[in-house]
Amino acid sequence: MVRRARQHDLIDAAPVAAVDATGLETRHVSAYFGLRRGSEGHRQRAWPKLTAVVHAHSHLILGAVPGVGPSQDSPDFTPAMRQAAALIRIDTALGDAGYDAEHNHRLCREDLGVRQTVIRLNQRNTGRRWPKTPYRRAMRRRFPKVLYNQRWHAESGFSQHKRRLGSALTARGDASQARELVLRVLTHNLMILAEAA
After folding, report:
1. d(Cα 187, Cα 121) in Å, to the nearest integer?
2. Domains in the chain, CATH or no CATH each
3. Nearest to residue 148, comparing CAs of 17, 57, 60, 15?
4. For the segment 21-63, what is each residue's pLDDT rounded down to a tens digit?
């Protein structure tokens, strides 16, 4: 996949990747039907969740971890980033405050060879106090807002994914939903490659 992406100039010289998570539905119900039934009748207590590393330039999904929400985002950061770093050398990794942890910075910078990490500080973790760890202190000292704003590419990638493949899964059990999510990611990437070709 990566070789074909490079052939079509989808992978840039200094790849920026945004980590984010999205929820999907477990059944096909139109928004209108949901409104007619009332919001209480349409509410899901748990939903399939996809944590993804989205390449900003192409919207290819480089790493994907299926799960079940609602749940904390941060634990899925490591497996998703390890998948992505195994495919391409990422220059910059972006993440929202849900991924604010020193070990996420260290993983990228020290283990995976990512040159720069931009993860917004979670105010609940520090309040007005300065973080004690070096990478998080750097985020407080000089936060690169312009670069961080490229995180919208993750949302755009998810939107593209749901427009093309729908927002509801057909599988019912957790294990089969996880498999379906992985197949959807592969399909998403193949569609981007096909368009480029």
Report:
1. 34
2. 2-23+46-196 (3.30.420.10)
3. 17
4. 999 998 755 554 455 555 554 555 789 999 999 999 999 999 9
